[in-house]
Design a protein that fits this description.
Two copies of one chain form a homodimer.
Chain A (H helix, E strand, L loop, with lengths): L8 E8 L2 E8 L2 E5 L1 E3 L12 H6 L4 E4 L1 H6 L3 H6 L2 H6 L4 E4 L3 H9 L17 E5 L4 E4 L6 E4 L1 H11 L3 E3 L11 H25 L5 E6 L5 H13 L4 E4 L7 H11 L9 E3 L5 H9 L4 E3 L2 H7 L2 E3 L8 E3 L19 H5 L2 H9 L3 H27 L3 H9 L8
Parallel strand pairs in A: 4-14, 5-6, 6-10, 10-11, 11-12, 12-13, 13-14
Antiparallel strand pairs in A: 1-2, 2-3, 7-8, 8-9, 15-16
């Protein structure tokens, strides 16, 4: 770990088994952990103003370097005072490296849907992947663009995030062991190039998180965990494929998390389902980002305390006509406080923007409540029973 | 006029020439006039929650009978406590008759775009128009639907609006004098059927406005104004084509408005551009509804004090990059208070929901400010100079 408290200080405030609460002290204020981080993919959390996201209690959002690199471009954002100034967000900000998106273009199978993008088929294409970096075509105008460890760091410097993520190859699920091994080694060389560039030219107050790769292979994950831990990063993220299903994901996480330095802040990339968040917290992970709550909202799906249906309620399905109840009893969000399932299901089927917005507010409230109450439970030494209650169908705020 | 103060009382509070201020006392509270009425086409003002529309100061919204008839249907809305209960709006509500939309299907040329619908080509089709009513196919599922004066009143009764509009034929611009004359006569017979049904079965506290047709023809407009005025309605609306361009529209309005009873509340249907609102107010009209502010928002266009560009600023055009100014200096809306043109133009081009929402908030704030200040100016006997200032490029709130 680099010891530069000005840049990022992670304070662990309570422990309950391996789970812990903490505070990430960033250049733009504290982030209480465990924390869920909403995506502000293209400089906005879908349908919400920055002040509203803060109003929900969120202390950090994640900006997507790939999308912002393609449009409006780093120069324009730098001139606006960085992504903070551009989007009017004065709390903490983390940016990804662009790696996930460009490798999704190349590999296809990394994600069913490139994070945060609502349209399919407009993601451009990858022209070449090499040691130097990745060349791809802009989905916007077909222009040839190049991204490398140095370019990624440079763009993230322009974005001025409080935490930058290193440029890595997000190995796909279908990659074999040999490919994953070679890819992980390249990711490590890229990590060094990122840190070298950042040490020389990065902003003094921007922290850098390394990314642990290695696919589903224990030895590769261990090798990667050791390499990244020794590299002098401010925190660690777990990336790449975690397996074909939830069982394998839990297994890979269960073996990888203990390989990371206990006291470092740990970010689990791209995971945000209710049960997965609880599993991650139990493993001592601190920060989680995911497109799920806002993507579900776009498709008319609300988070509910229903473990048998993956905590989801599809409001576009029939059966909600005349239902005078809220999405979830006791939920403090504006959708639940002011509207019933009857109206929300109609609005969702009519594809009204108001529905997307109300469901975004609901889903983000739901996860924020989950994290807030998880933190309280950890402080009370009661995380296991809290987790069991939620997994058993309790609302996040009801225990 | 029917004298049932319980249903609707219109109180004129000040006069300045022909312009006047007033209060429409409805079963759901007062509406201060002159008033602009946002469209809640499908049970929501685009992208906004009902509480937010009230927060902007609006006291009445307009629901579209045609759209709500097709989906979710009057029975479901009635069970929710009417449109007020369904959408969570506790202030005044006016509903149109469905006539404008079904005749748009039939005539094509009535409107460039059917009010409030974002998609083209999904408006269904008209099967037959007769004395009894209009048969058409649902754009939703192709089902055969029938709307008549009685059905329209019945649906509006289910919606429970404070003001219902009678079912009329909205004659298209390209209709000739003979067609318009015959159509206007049928509209009058439909008016009688509407009132007859409503007298017998309509809610006691729902007011009914008649609609004056007659196209661009002075004698037909006069005949219609006399017929509707004598029919025992609670207020009058001016409908139908007002001509090929703004000059002809002003001419038709200028001759029609004085034909209406001075003390009746008067609604100008479907008109909402800044200069047209001021012209309407000068003619003693009280209430205006229009899709323009929300439709423009969807297309990235903001209202600005720029008479040479029809008071519009297209944020999707280039030229706003790096512009650190708000859409309009001094505008109290959240878009102008918190964001600059640089960011808003990027968001609009990226087609982010947040942009549509922020521009809706801006455009509706702009028109609300225009109406609020117009009312103050009328109270001060200074409407002409206020109007001249705004038409000369002053912001609505700056004089």
């Amino acid at each position: 770990m680099r010891a530069e408290p000005d840049r990022l200080r992670f304070e662990i405030t309570a422990r309950d088994g391996i789970a812990r609460t903490g505070v990430l002290h960033t250049a733009h204020g504290p982030v209480h952990t465990p924390a869920f981080i909403p995506l502000a993919t293209k400089g906005t959390v879908r349908g919400l103003e920055a002040r509203e996201v803060a109003g929900l209690g969120y202390e950090m959002v994640l900006g997507n370097t790939y999308h912002l690199f393609v449009s409006p471009g780093p120069e324009r954002i730098a001139k606006a005072g960085g992504l903070h100034g551009f989007m009017g967000w004065d709390r903490a900000l983390i940016t990804d490296s662009g790696g996930f998106q460009v490798f999704s273009l190349a590999h296809g199978g990394v994600a069913n849907e490139v994070k945060g993008s609502g349209r399919k088929g407009d993601h451009g294409s990858v022209v070449s992947i090499g040691e130097e970096g990745v060349r791809f075509r802009s989905y916007r105008d077909g222009a040839s663009l190049f991204i490398s460890p140095e370019v990624s760091m440079q763009v993230q410097t322009a974005l001025g995030s409080d935490i930058a993520l290193v440029f890595d190859e997000c190995t796909p699920f279908h990659a074999d062991r040999d490919y994953t091994a070679r890819s992980t080694e390249r990711t490590h060389r890229w990590l060094d190039r990122c840190l070298e560039w950042h040490e020389r030219e990065g902003p003094a107050r921007q922290a850098v998180f390394g990314i642990v790769q290695g696919g589903v292979h224990e030895d590769l994950r261990r090798e990667s965990a050791e390499y990244v831990s020794a590299a002098g990063v401010d925190g660690l993220a777990i990336g790449g494929t975690l397996g074909r299903d939830k069982a394998e994901m839990r297994e890979v996480l269960g073996m990888t998390a203990p390989m990371l330095p206990v006291d470092a802040p740990k970010h689990l990339l791209g995971i945000g389902e209710v049960d997965d968040l609880l599993a991650g917290i139990a493993l001592g992970l601190d920060v989680f980002d995911c497109a799920v709550p806002t993507r579900l909202a776009r498709h008319g799906v609300a988070l509910v305390p229903d473990p048998d249906n993956r905590f989801r309620l599809d409001l576009r399905k029939s059966g909600h006509e005349g239902d005078r109840g809220p999405i979830v009893d006791g939920c403090p969000c504006p959708a639940c406080q002011r509207h019933d399932r009857d109206y929300l299901s109609y609005l969702s089927r009519a594809e009204e923007l108001t529905a997307v917005r109300l469901l975004c507010l609901h889903n983000l409230t739901y996860l924020q409540e989950l994290m807030t109450h998880a933190r309280t439970a950890i402080g009370d030494g009661a995380f296991d029973s809290y987790s069991a209650a939620v997994l058993g169908g309790a609302a996040p705020w009801s225990t």
